[in-house]
Structures are given as structure tokens and as C-alpha cells.
Design brief:
Structural class: alpha/beta
Order of helices and strands: HHEHHHEHEHEHHHHEHHEHEHHEHHHHE
Radius of gyration: 25 Å
Number of strands: 9
Strand content: 5-15%
Distance between the termini: 23 Å
Number of helices: 20
Oligomer: single chain
Largest sheet: 7 strands, mixed
Helix content: 40-55%
Strand order of the largest sheet: 3-2-6-7-1-9-8
Amino acid sequence: MMTDFEKRYAAARKAVVSEDFKALNPMQRQAVMATEGPLLILAGAGSGKTTVLINRIANLLKYGCASDSEEIPADADEEKLRILEQGGPAAQELAALDPVEPWRILAITFTNKAADEMKARLEHLLGPAANDIWACTFHSACVRILRRDADKLGFGDNFTIYDTADSLSLIKRILKDLDLDEKSFAPKAVLAEISRAKDEGVSGEEYLRRARMQGDIRRIKTGEVYEAYMRRMFAANAMDFDDLIAFTVKLLQENDEVCAYWQRRFRYVLIDEYQDTNNLQYLLSSLLAGGWGNICVVGDDDQSIYKFRGATIENILSFEQQYPQIWEIVKADYAGGMYGAPDQIDSQIIAWRHLEKLRYPFAKNIVEMKKQQKEAMMQAQQKPQLMNEDASDSKAAGASVNMSNQMGGMVLAC
């Protein structure tokens, strides 16, 4: 049990960190200051998700785990407590608790444009230290990992990366060599099927074996193309975009020493647009975060733009199931949300009043949760008298429900 001094010290330290991020709204600040363990942030477009990621990284670099740790330094005394409670630059320097090195943070997003924007914003906020942060796409991160350890998979560290045009050209050559008509086996469709199989972890040999067991001639021929494609890629010391992730996952799964190295290295893993991850990206994220367990994923569970690439919303919906140690849902005060004055949204808050005491398992039942919320909203609209009830009671109720898309606010599990 903490002593009164220790409680005051931890509270004062947390207040110093909170003050440094006072420009953020309460929900954003909650996400920034939750540093340890798995964290899920659900938020709609324009709600400041990237801002949260940038500031969360800044907090980790400057303060470490000071904002949510009860650990008290051995040399803590009344004078240092006084400095913390007084605030200011001296207090900020004193508040730091095990700040993380920049190169131990992996921040992943989906496009090069988004990665470049993140790097620019980090550099603007943090200065030269931002250059050592791994702020990149999944593919860029995998290239850096494979350049170090690809030899363990039989590749040279100078492997070539095939783009889509290169891959299609190879597929066409294989189709010609196998005397298969491109009208019956469209190269793009064949490449897409190979990509889907890779995402499911099915090798060319396994794909062909299954096709032969099923007696499906078309799938047998596709399997023969797939097998030849992978054989020729390996002979050329080349990988396509899918291979970069697939072989990184294979490397980490089959080489304990390599996996342990990268898990030790990345103390914090942050992933933007998590709803757009496919199976391989999900596996890669889990493997890299498996050492420290500090994984923060940000996404919009109502939007996924990469379904054609195998993206699955289940990665968000099953997050709590995968990480049972996830913190409880943080309750948001939507009366102080990002958009609109309180009087503009009070009526919507009141409509959710009957859901106040409900507890949801969050991720795994989020679809059912939203269904119940919509039903409650419809019932409230049919009973206008609800709008005349005590607003203070309704505001408290509104704090416990997910209205991220309607209000633009952030719902967290941290």
C-alpha cells in the first residue's frame, strides 16, 4: 500500500505530465497518458487520431511511464515533491520516469504519404530525436528487418523487391510457359489469388496439394502458377510486397533468437488505421509487440478501405479477446467533446441515458453493443419527454457509451 507521501508524489508527477498536454481535449489526453499495456483507440475521421499518436510518442520520449506508474524514485524527498507540485520546467525534468529511447518506438501507418506526414510532425515536435523513431509503413519496417536477417530464410540481404508490374510480368511468363491462356487465367486475378493465399499463410505447395485433393482443375492450374512463381522469385533473390510481410512473419515465427531481438528492441508498438490490417499484418503486429506487451492500435471500426487486400475488421473487434489484460473502457465526457457546443449535443446524450450502467465486453461484442445503442436512440426519439429530464444525470450517462462517430469523440480501451 502506498504511503501518503507516495500518493502525493505520483499524483503531482501525473499532474505535471497532464499540464504539458493541456492543449489536447480530455479523451485525447487520456490516450496520450496511458503508456503501459495494450491500448485500443476507436475514433471517427477527423477526430484527431494522428494527433494522439504524435503526442503519445512525445510523452513516451519525454516522460516515459510517469503518467500512469505508481513507482516512486528511491531518491524522492519532500523537496522534489515541492518542485513537482509547483510545476514548471524543473518539475517537467523531474517528472520523467524511464523515458524510452526513440529507436525503441515502432509507429506504423499504411501509406508512404501518411508515414512521411507522421515523420514531419514528429520532427516538428521533437526535433532531431524524431529521426531515430521507426515511423514507417508495414512494408518499410519489414524491409529493414529482412535486410538484417533474410539469410536465415535463404535470401541474400541484397534481395530485390518486385512491384506489381514486375510480379504481373513474371505471372505472364509463367502462364505462357505452362501453356495457359491469359483470357482464362487473367494475370491480375491469378496474382490476387496468390496474394490471398499468402495472407492466409498457404504456401504454393500447400495450395496445390489442396486443389488436387478437391479435384478442382482451375485451382490446380492456379496452384501450379503459384508454385512456379515462388520458385522463380526465390531463384532471383526477389520478394514482392506480400512476401515482405509474409517472410518477416515466417522469420519471427521460426527463429526464436531473431524474434526475441526485435521484441526486446521495440518497447512500444503503435499502429494507425488498425481496421485496415490483414491477417499477415495482424500476425506481425502481435509478434513484434509480444515482448513488452505495449501495443497501441488506432482505428475506426465503421470504416475499412482495404477489404480488397484482405483487410478484416475482426482484428479490431477481437482486440480485447486477444489482449485480456486490456484496461477498461475509458468513459468520455461528450458534453466537452471535440465538436459542437454542449447545448448542441445534450439531446443526443440524453438519448443514451438508459445505457449508463451497462457493461460491454467492448471489442468482441461491439457489433451487438452498437445495435443496442441504435435501438436506444430510436426509443428516445419516440419519447420526446426524455429530453426534459435532468440534464446533469444524462451527461453522466453519456460518458459511458461509444458515440465516436456521431460526436467525433474518442472511445478508448486503455
